[in-house]
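Thread: Newbie trying to understand structure tokens

Hi all, I'm a second-year student working on a class project, and my supervisor (Dr. K.) asked me to get a predicted structure for one chain before our next meeting. I've only ever worked with sequences, so writing a 3D structure as a token string is new to me. If someone could post the tokens and maybe explain what I'm looking at, I'd be very grateful. Here's the chain:
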Amino acid sequence: MNKKKRSLEETVTSIVINGDEAESEEDTVSRDLRSRLGEMRKLGSITGYILKDGESATVDLGDSAKTAENAMLASQAFETYEEIREPLNLGAVESIVVECKDLKMLCMVVGESTLSVFMEKQVDHAKIQNKLSFQTE
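---
Reply by user tm_fold:
Sure, no problem. This is what the structure looks like when written as tokens:
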């Protein structure tokens, strides 16, 4: 059974709410980050990502059947952290790693944006995080 491969351009969805034509520094960081994530997707390092800020969301998860499930998983990871942060006297989130049976998810805050990166379980999430972290410095 041959699976039909979709090109990267067909799988990326970008949603802009109340968009502004002037590109801010945050927009430039987000654009560069999306470019780096796209390159990692091509290399097979990651299977998909969700990048959200106050005005837009870029979703590239490849398997559209799992888009809603992965989006809910990412959202729940950030929400759960926020619920336990104050009672446990934890600081702001830097990164969250969730390992499932056959999936690993790295969640990060990059500037004003939240980023959830999905990968196969055996991928070294620390390497992915390092490639993305220098973005904000």
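A couple of things are worth pointing out once you decode it. The chain has one domain: 25-136. Residues 25-43 form the longest helix (19 residues). Feel free to ask follow-ups in this thread.
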